[in-house]
Design goal:
Blueprint: E1 2-6, H1 20-34, E2 38-42, E3 52-54, H2 69-81, E4 89-92, E5 109-113, H3 122-127, E6 134-136, E7 148-151, E8 171-174, H4 183-193, E9 197-200, H5 206-213, E10 221-223, H6 229-238, E11 241-244, H7 254-261, E12 266-269, H8 274-277, E13 284-287, H9 290-299, H10 305-315, H11 318-335
Parallel strand pairs: 1-2, 1-4, 2-3, 4-5, 5-6, 6-7, 8-9, 8-11, 9-10, 11-12, 12-13
Length: 337
């Protein structure tokens, strides 16, 4: 079987620090290669893969701002679709744009929908409902207007994360600095529970950071910048708990799964996919307010870190994700659709 994996070109695949879609595309590609599948990864030229790499740019447009994102994306997608005949199947991790080519080629396209940036993009997905082979990354992130093959949870390489039964005493916020992700709420939780908070992530909203976050930084609330993958394991593993007070219906949440792989429980606002990722009072707490989250910090001692690791390994490993996708590939190819 020859498979083309289409990754975004905002960041390197896998990303240096931020880039969840790129990370999942990398995990899919590498996982397939380990199963003996011939994989070509379509990504930025500086991407890393054990398979063949195809690219139209040296670096992603978020890392080289001299490039026009729209132009680069069109060149990138067309580069794959014009070579579609070289592959048995195309795995699209690049949102809706590739679908607009999909009826012009014979190669089937399976599309992992990593989330909806807006309801305005639904009509494109809807147009290709009968041929799009859609996969959701959580049951919560499904549109009632679309047809889905399955839900496949994002998978992580469990070897990248080390179980730590004896954490330090700090809380961790790990994610982009943006109102959607609840950075300011995490600070409130830390203050109410009288705990140290480390904040790690790229600053996606400069005004939010300057107005809501930076004035509160001190010895108790510390911003440590963006964490590279090598630093991520230590940060997550040493944390008493991960705070994830999201203000939107998050489709998945890689940091939640990553934390639990290290044995670190998660305190999250009960929105989006969080009930699918977290077993309430078993691997963390699902809460609705800052006060409830602060109370949950005091209950963290009742959570088994070993249970967190076992749960996350069973549900969110790269091996499980690849097994699930391979079943779907075979189903699509057998159907001749």
């Amino acid at each position: 079987m020859k498979v083309a994996v289409l990754s975004p070109v905002a960041w390197r695949t896998p990303p240096r620090h931020y880039g969840p879609w790129e990370q999942v595309a990398s995990n899919i590609a590498d996982g397939l290669i380990k199963r003996g599948i011939e994989v070509t990864l379509f990504a930025t030229g500086d991407s890393i893969t054990a398979g063949k790499l195809e690219s139209v740019c040296a670096r992603g447009y978020e890392e080289d701002r001299t490039q026009d994102a729209k132009v680069l994306e069109c060149l990138h997608v067309s580069n794959l679709l014009e070579k579609a005949g070289d592959f048995d199947l195309i795995h699209n991790n690049f949102d809706f744009l590739p679908l607009t080519y999909s009826r012009l080629i014979k190669t089937p396209v399976i599309t992992t929908i990593h989330g909806f940036s807006s309801q305005k993009i639904i009509p494109v997905y809807k147009k290709y409902n009968s041929t799009g082979h859609y996969v959701s990354i959580s049951n919560s992130d499904r549109s009632p207007e679309l047809n889905y093959l399955a839900t496949v949870y994002n998978g992580l390489d469990t070897k990248d994360f080390t179980f730590n039964p004896q954490p330090d005493d700090y809380l961790l916020y790990f994610g982009r600095i943006h109102p959607d992700k609840g950075t300011a709420e995490a600070i409130e939780i830390a203050k109410k529970s009288n705990r140290k908070l480390l904040i790690a992530g790229i600053i996606q909203d400069e005004n939010y950071f300057k107005e809501k976050i930076e004035p509160q930084l001190n010895d108790q609330i510390e911003y440590i910048g963006s964490a590279v993958p090598e630093k991520r394991n230590t940060l997550l593993g040493n944390a008493l708990a991960l705070l994830h007070p999201i203000n939107f219906n998050e489709p998945f949440g890689l940091s939640v799964a990553e934390a639990m792989l290290c044995g670190t429980p998660v305190i999250a606002f009960n929105r989006g996919s969080m009930p699918e990722l977290i077993e309430h009072e078993e691997t963390g707490f699902l809460v609705n307010t800052v006060d409830e989250a602060a109370d949950a910090v005091d209950q963290i001692k009742n959570i088994s870190r070993e249970k967190c690791c076992t749960w996350a390994t069973a549900q969110f490993s790269c091996d499980k994700m690849v097994d699930d996708y391979l079943r779907l590939y075979k189903q699509i190819l057998a159907s001749g659709a």
